[in-house]
Design goal:
66% helix
Amino acid sequence: EFGNVDVKEFAKEEGWANDFAKSLGEKMKTTQLRKVFTSIKLMEQGVKGKVGSDPFDNPELYMLLPQMAYAKARKLIIPEFYDLAKTIINDGMIKNVGDFRRFAQFMTAIVAYHKQYGK
């Protein structure tokens, strides 16, 4: 479950989010990354006030995948970004609100670090 991932593992400058953002570099435009991020932030607003152990079953999370697949087919996002999201979402790593919140934090870190490397 994604909620068990320590924020320090991805948020530090030498963490996963920065490494991944660096690999995205200029291959992926900030606008495409922000579209996905905006969807995640809207879902995050929907869980305000909920307990971390509450189940998370928002269908919008799963709808990100076909939207991202379309963007990947149009070469607007790179396959690695799609594959990362697909792995986290499809492999059942987001079961409860706590898992989703940690996923949102991870994506926040990627977007923030990507600003250094992207267009």
